[in-house]
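Reagents: none. Just compute today. Adenine phosphoribosyltransferase.
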Amino acid sequence: MPTSKPLYADYIQERIRTVPDWPQPGVMFRDITPLLQDPKTFRLLVDTFVHRYMDMQIDLVAGVDARGFILGAVVAYELNLGFVPIRKKGKLPFLTEAEEYELEYGSATVEIHADACKRGDRVLLVDDLVATGGTMIAAARLLQRLGATVVEAAAIVDLPELGGSRLIAEQQIPLYTICDFAGH
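Predicted 3D structure written out:
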């Protein structure tokens, strides 16, 4: 489960836009684009992750398609680490490994380049939010299949009522999130 709440969690959470009934009726979509649009908030968001990971032994940062690329790439840059994209199926041009996972209504597949990391690499896995956990778990499995260790999975938002953070914990993948929308 997520660890203790970061210092600026409320500030960041207040700036996440909630879009009702998107992409379908009954869904409360948590939109992180306002965090990215405001320079002060974007810097605070990135710095929150950078300060958490600057003293950890990490070799690479992996980001999950697509919003995980935004945060993951900047965090990798700030930590002076390489960045690994984990993409939706069919988007990577080289030899890939693939992992299918279940969605609420269907399934999806993510892929990673077969040479994206090497055995023993310690990887930070980043996405924007944790909902059902399927994408994060599939991405972690890809990294593990290549021989890497997922040091921690990190996201801005946890939606605990959808059960993803619990499933990630059951996979024994440490998880860090800045804020959650439990009961919202």
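The chain has one domain: 9-180.
Action item: order primers for follow-up constructs.
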